[in-house]
Amino acid sequence: MTTIAKKSVADRSRATYDLGATAIFASKSDPRFHYCLYVPPAVGEGAKVDLMVAIHGTGRTSFLGFRDAFSEFGRWNGCAVLCPLFPIGVLGDDARSGYKYILEGNIRYDRVLLAMVEEVSAKYSQDWSRIAMFGFSGGGHFTHRFAILHPDRLWAASIGAPGSVTLLDPTRDWWVGIRDLPEKFGITFDATALAKVPFQMIVGDAD
Q: Domains (ranges, CATH) in the chain?
């Protein structure tokens, strides 16, 4: 096979699996967790784009729906869309809600996500040190708690119907409050950094 032919096969594979609506990948950092993306085709020509992360709800199936729903936004606004999948029962106990509270056993879901961001940043040669994040229902749980822990990593956040929230209450422990962040996460709450993040919060009559 000639060099040109080899390159053509590689280019076709990249266009099929790595650009536009991508395949589903296992995280290299922890293959129990997966993700898919929408990557604007211009990235294949070297374009630099922003990154938005969309977090699924408790049923998990919305991770593909969010990718597809945000694809037009991503294409016309120069923004890749990363949709992680945090499966039910990764510790073998059928637990559904661990990711919502960031900490489940020895799993830190904030670190799982940040490892995915680092992985795709390197893959696409992008600077995604700061991201936007959207989450609905269970994803709204995750998004607002991630923002409390890592406001410096966000340039915007949109939260829909989170169901229950963490209060910025220094007299209560996580997840109701933030008193024990240093012990649980090794993080000190940064109110100044959080105040700089533009937020959208949407809660309906049924919530």
A: 12-202 (3.40.50.1820)
